[in-house]
Automatic annotation (TrEMBL):
Name of the featured protein: Major facilitator superfamily (MFS) profile domain-containing protein
Top-level taxon of origin: Bacteria
Keywords, comma-separated and alphabetical: Cell membrane, Membrane, Peptide transport, Protein transport, Transmembrane, Transmembrane helix, Transport
Compartment(s): Cell membrane
GO biological process: peptide transport
Gene3D superfamilies assigned to the protein according to its UniProt record, in alphabetical order: MFS general substrate transporter like domains (1.20.1250.20)
Length: 247
């Protein structure tokens, strides 16, 4: 339902609302990036569903006789954000000063690629789990998963709204920003559906499920990398003044 509303609204903006040819192109880019964000959030939000269930049922959480509560693993993401935010900020600033900063599209693609790596890690973890006949695996697999997923999140989440501001026609900025937040809702809904598939009864299906997630993410990343050049031209041709570090 949410996805249908998103599509219909963009159809209205592009084909029915009075928009120029350039504005239509910019709206198409906005739509594709919002879908890309929804795909990433559908992976990221699994930390609250399938990953939490996987951690609870299939990982060894015992350290020196103390059983680490599953909820504590939710703190890994914010800890990594605190650690890596200044590092990535330093990298982006340094690249920007050399006029080598990645484009918006490249950062979105990089986020999806790193997300795919995180699910490849879970694929191997679940494969090991199946081979061990359900014996609990090391929780280091989960930490590695969070590492790549968090760095991916930091690649695009901070610049998402500014990207929409640059691309959206000025009179539609409020609407496009609202649609941007729909991507998070859509991703959360998909994550909830996927999370329902994780249980001790269907342990043999876990590698396939995580593999499918990885494939979707890496294919989406590849599409964005392919579209990077034409998309960047559209951003550059926007009537708004765009800082060179955003191209």
């Amino acid at each position: 339902m949410t996805f249908s509303i998103l599509i219909l609204y963009f159809v209205y903006l592009i084909f029915i609302a009075k928009t120029t040819s350039q504005e239509k192109k910019q709206l198409v880019v906005c739509f594709i990036l919002i879908i890309a964000a929804a795909i990433f959030w559908s992976a990221s939000d699994q930390t609250y569903t399938s990953i939490t269930l996987f951690t609870e049922d299939f990982t060894n959480r015992s350290v020196l006789g103390f059983m680490i509560p599953t909820a504590w693993f939710q703190a890994i993401n914010p800890i990594f954000i605190i650690i890596f935010s200044p590092i990535l900020a330093f990298i982006w600033v340094k690249l920007g000063r050399k006029n080598q900063d990645l484009s918006y599209i490249s950062k979105f693609g990089l986020a999806l690629f790193l997300g795919s790596i995180s699910f490849i890690i879970l694929y191997f973890a679940s494969h090991q789990l199946v081979q061990a006949n359900g014996m609990a695996i090391s929780s280091l697999w989960i930490i590695a998963f969070y590492l790549f997923l968090t760095i991916g999140e930091l690649c695009f989440s901070p610049i998402g709204l500014s990207c929409m501001t640059v691309l959206a026609p000025q009179r539609m900025q409020g609407q496009i920003m609202g649609l941007w937040f729909i991507s998070s809702a859509l991703g959360g809904m998909i994550a909830g559906l996927v999370g329902g598939e994780v249980s001790a009864e269907n342990i043999n299906e876990l590698p396939s499920m995580f593999k499918q997630c990885a494939v979707i993410l890496i294919v989406s990343a590849a599409i964005l990398f392919i579209l990077n050049k034409p998309f960047s031209k559209l951003i550059h041709s926007s009537p708004k003044k765009v800082d060179s570090s955003y191209e």
